[in-house]
Amino acid sequence: MDGTKVLIVDDEAQIRRFLRIALEAHGFQVVEAIRGQDAVARAASENPDIVILDLGLPDMDGKAVVGRIREWSSVPILVLSVRQAEAEKVAALDAGADDYVVKPFGIAELLARLRALARKRRPDAGPAEPAELTVGELHIDLARREVRVAGRAVRLTRKEFDLLAMLARNAGRIVTHPQLLRQVWGRAHENDVHYLRVFIGQIREKLDDDPAHPRFILNEPGVGYRLLLP
Amino acid sequence: MDGTKVLIVDDEAQIRRFLRIALEAHGFQVVEAIRGQDAVARAASENPDIVILDLGLPDMDGKAVVGRIREWSSVPILVLSVRQAEAEKVAALDAGADDYVVKPFGIAELLARLRALARKRRPDAGPAEPAELTVGELHIDLARREVRVAGRAVRLTRKEFDLLAMLARNAGRIVTHPQLLRQVWGRAHENDVHYLRVFIGQIREKLDDDPAHPRFILNEPGVGYRLLLP
DNA sequence: GCCGATCCTTACGCGATCCTTACGGCCGCG
DNA sequence: CGCGGCCGTAAGGATCGCGTAAGGATCGGC
């Protein structure tokens, strides 16, 4: 957990030390607080990613600490306690804690629970891909497999579309015969150039008004094809 | 927790029943799944706010179920298990679970932990996932698993609904065969395209009046299906 | 343990799509 | 002028993918 900052709140120096060593060994960054007042202040000034809070503090009730932090922060709080009564757990969790671990605890489990809490913090990157290509009058919607030329919808078959999409992704550049063949037909057919002649012809027939002068797909003799930029 | 939807995954009917009663008494909304594959499909089609997952399922390893859901969703997952070994807890948490509760458990603690998980979910960048979808004359209630076409109620089976829900969630866009198969049937069947043919056919028979001209689900030969936007 | 609902499997007809082959035009070169 | 490489067009047959139907297996509830 490279650089995840953890605030440890416990009044026993021994436990703080134990936790610090274990956490730092696993790549966490550690800051400490001893009393409840201090904990609230540190949570504000240090801006930690996680708080580990012992419930048995001398100056404040642990649940009160949780409540104070929750007044302004949603930082994940993992509560430690020697008390295993169910009512205690419920009270702490309902006060705003995110997890409750009974002492004594296994350090491996604690670390796993910290990782689980840290995981949530990341803003999930959406699977947003462009899914649309526009080259002059030619508009290709990859998500819907639709093609429009100057607004008019054009119906392409599967291979025709795959071929045109490959050209559109490299618009302006030459795409060689083997590149096209590998992408659309697979490596086994990378020498069957005649496939391309037939299908390029069919695409042109559907896109162009004047088949004699193709506006979009140009031929590079002996090399490949390219989609003309506007 | 007014209306928080919980997906319960457990193979024992007794436990499902126990959890359902307890959760509904506290204002949760409950849906159930019995096997792992079903669980993954439900997580997709029902869009629950929390998942409660028993690790001892008959058909899949529990950690595998967690992984499958985590491929695309960040829904909070609370794992139940009879195994209290620390290594088990670590494995489940690192697989992507958010909490781990050992059976037998106190229902009050479980409820408190669910509230803690539900709390986190609120400010999340949820893209306002609606509980209802309307596409032209087609109306899908994801919460009640009800479908209406032009006001007329249509009864769909589980798999039929899961399939339609997956399409509706991506309405207008093409969903490929492997995507549909993975979500509804599981990765092991991502090549069984004939499943789709059968079930798409059955859905169309129930939605459309004229089976020859499907109004809603369109086919992209060799690629997938899509739900037509009005 | 039984029963109804649901799911899986298989087979078959049909249409769209793809592959194959053939032919004619254009060009540069001998 | 003949020839061969490269390209584009056309058309028929082979193949693929889709939809439908039906019987058997399996599941979940009682």
Descriptive notes:
2 copies of one chain form a homodimer. The first copy, chain A, has helices at residues 13-25, 36-46, 62-70, 86-95, 107-120, 158-169, 177-185, 193-207, and strands spanning 5-9, 29-33, 50-54, 77-81, 99-102, 132-135, 138-141, 146-149, 152-154, 175-176, 217-220, 224-227. In chain A, the strands form 3 sheets. A 5-stranded parallel β-sheet of chain A has the order 2-1-3-4-5, sandwiched between helices. By secondary structure, chain A is an alpha/beta fold. At the A-B interface, helix 4 and helix 5 of A face helix 4 and helix 5 of B. The structure holds a DNA duplex (30 and 30 nucleotides).
Number of separate domains of chain A: 2
Major beta-sheet overview of chain A = 5 strands, parallel
Query: Helical proportion of chain A?
Result: 40-55%
Spatial separation of the terminal alpha carbons of chain A: 49 Å
The helix/strand series of chain A, from N terminus to C terminus, equals EHEHEHEHEHEEEEHEHHEE
State the total count of DSSP E strands of chain A.
12
What is the average of the pLDDT values of chain A?
89
* CATH-scheme architecture of the largest domain in chain A: 3-Layer(aba) Sandwich
Largest interface, C-beta closer than 8 angstroms, per-chain residues:
A-B, 31 and 32 residues
What kind of assembly state do the chains in view correspond to? homodimer
| The CATH homology group name of the largest domain in chain A | Response regulator
Individual helix count of chain A: 8
* Strand order in the largest sheet of chain A: 2-1-3-4-5
Classify the secondary structure makeup of chain A into a structural class: alpha/beta
Shape of chain A: rod-shaped
CATH class of the largest domain in chain A: Alpha Beta
Rg of chain A, Å, rounded: 31 Å
Low-confidence stretches of chain A: 122-128
CATH topology of the largest domain in chain A: Rossmann fold
Proportion in β-strands of chain A: 15-25%
